[in-house]
Amino acid sequence: MLSLAHHVTLVTGASSGIGRAVALELARHQTQLCIVGRDPDRLREVESLAASMAERVLVFQKDLTLDGDLDELSSHLRREFGQLDILVHCAGEIVSSELEAAAIDDFDRQYRVNVRAPYLLTKNVLSLLKVMPGQVVFVNSSAGLAARATVSQFSATQHAVRAMADSLRAEINKYQIRVLSVFPGRTATPRQARIYQREGRAYQPELLMQPEDISLMISSALQLPRTAEVTDISMRPLLKSY
């Protein structure tokens, strides 16, 4: 297995849910961990938990919809490290509504967070990923594989991210940069709790996947020897109760 120790790692959406679990899992591998999020209190909590495990932890309170914040983030990485070994895209937003009633502003917001932000961030740091060479992970969604009612906007963004990852993989394979897409089903996260509330359904997190299930799968793929590449991982709760 490939050791991840000392690797420069960037995780977006690291303050909550799957992103938080991924950040803490990579901290356990003694990486140089950079965490990105909008909530300063939750970022500090993750920083505190990761500090005793990671080689070092850097916190970036950024809004990924702002080009200036993305530019500052990539510039800091370039000055501080001169390379990036692992990039994990976990930030995202979802708004559910039937198409007829859906607000176009919600669609625009989801596009900026779910599609444009990871596209521009990856573009900005691609030269840093070529140094190692590095690895890129897009934490997508089961909605990126098949759409269902009321999630046309979100599913459209996730299909776009899937296409982005597939195209990127073909473009940068010559640099030996690996690109992984992960498609989780329903996972016990704060976002999922809000979705259940909107749906008027009882939230039973113990019946869903846990964020740590996904973070363990991602770290396993990242540690594969350099003779192999995992391109797509689809994960579901064991009990199909939804």
Question: What would you say this structure looks like, in words?
Answer:
44% of the residues lie in helices and 15% in strands. The N and C termini lie far apart (36 Å). The model has no long low-confidence stretch (mean pLDDT 96). The protein has helices spanning 17-28, 40-51, 67-80, 104-129, 152-172, 190-199, 211-222, and strands spanning 8-12, 32-37, 56-61, 86-89, 135-139, 178-184, 232-235. The chain has 242 residues and is an alpha/beta fold. It has a seven-stranded parallel beta sheet with strand order 3-2-1-4-5-6-7, with helices on both faces. The protein is globular and about 45 Å long. Strand 2, helix 2 (40-51) and strand 3 (56-61) form a beta-alpha-beta unit. The chain has seven helices and seven strands; from the N terminus they run βαβαβαβαβαβααβ. The chain has one domain (8-233): 3-Layer(aba) Sandwich (Rossmann fold), CATH 3.40.50. Helix 1 packs across helix 7, helix 3 runs parallel beside helix 4 and helix 4 (104-129) runs parallel beside helix 5.
